[in-house]
Amino acid sequence: MTTADPVRRRVSARLRILLWLLLVMTVALVAVAAATRSVLLRDVDNRINGLLVQEAEEFAYLAKEGVDPSTGDRFTDPTQLLDLFLSRQYADPDEELLGLIGRPDGGIATRVQQRELRIDHPLAGDGRSVEAVFDSEDTAGTLNRPQGEVRWAKVRIGSSGAPATFVVAFHPAGEQAKANNVFTMLLAISGVALLMTTGVGWAVAGRILKPVRLVRTAAADLTEQDLTRRIPVQGRDDIAALAETFNAMLDRLERAFAAQREFVDDAGHELRTPITIVRGHLELMGDGPGEREETVRIVMEELDRMSRIVEDLLLLAKAERPDFVSPGPVQIGELTADVFVKARALGERDWRLAEAIDAEADLDSQRITQAMVQLAQNAVQHTVHGQRVSIGSRSREDGIELYVADSGPGVQPQDAGVIFERFRRGTARRGTRATGAGLGLAIVKAIAEGHGGQVELRPTDGGGATFVLVLPGARDSADPTDPSDLREAEL
Fold first, then answer.
1. Is the entire prediction scored with pTM above 0.85?
2. Dihedral angle at the C-alpha atoms of 298, 300, 305, 310, nearest 10 degrees?
3. What secondary structure letter does DSSP report for 426?
4. Is residue 419 very low, low, confident or very high in pLDDT (cuts 50, 70, 90)?
């Protein structure tokens, strides 16, 4: 691990968002300022070129069509033509109008306008540049002097004896300086905007990321013993969705840890008794064959009971998983008949198939069969030989009901609220044959809730208890099938 890694981890998301925002805004503002400067400079170039062309065309027109005011004839002397044009033109502050006349000795006579120039280094005072323009074969060009750039255009006039040239020169430094000043001003405004953006962005990023910081703080404070903290949800944006997702995750974790603790507590509590019995009988086992046989029998019974407890606890723990049930299309009438056939082997009772509906629903047939058989086993434990136990199914407006009704002593009112809890068999037993760890009805409740339904306890007409699985989603419900037909078909 490099030394830069810890530093990088300490950079907060708030700061990274602000830095990215400033980077994007800086690039955008600089690009806008540069584009504005480019446009302004291009406008300066276009204006200068237009001015040079205009001045050159005006002089060319005068040289071609103009007449000497003193004689009324066409100009024959280039000097007079240049003097007349220069005296009548009003040049821009950055513009020079020059008349260049060749002398017999090879020199150049320069005629200029009599006005005050704001140009620091005029072209007329630079003999070498004047010669370069006069001798050039081009009609326009640019001089890149150390004193500054000069753009020019010229019109040749005169005869072979005295060649002359009209020159219009423009010094763009002033106009370019204006464009550069605008560019500098835009950069200054951009700097102020970036400073304001820094403050506003820091505050906004902090407000937006507040739920994220709460999530981080809550995650740091979470322990296996305390999973009750939740993030306040504000608004309907992505951050609020993150807080809702985090809270939902905490709900799942809390349920998972609660189920784990409950599983450990229940297992430890319920397994302690058979382990104590096994250990006590092994310690007190005598040497006689009869005592050994009796001890082995008791130990095997307790081991079987522990095995059933462990299997039931594992099943209840699995009920917290999303794949606890695997629904599929199930014919309710056939399922009811199958449960009836399997339940008859649990004990010698007056078994009756009360009713069965001809309908289809999306259920996990194995889990529903397991729950119904458990209810039938519960009915056997709380009834005696020859008492009636009815199994059936029926439709309702919002789904179906599968039930097991017995004619035993029923459930005491004080027990009705606790019999579906783990390891709770009630304060008053319904019969003398009830055995087990008190997990059967808890398993039935878990299976019903896994299907999106519930299990209900109702009194049986004539006495007894009726346990009903209330499940959603019946399709193509028809009139109840004659139970005698199903019974004869199964028999």
1. no
2. 140
3. -
4. confident
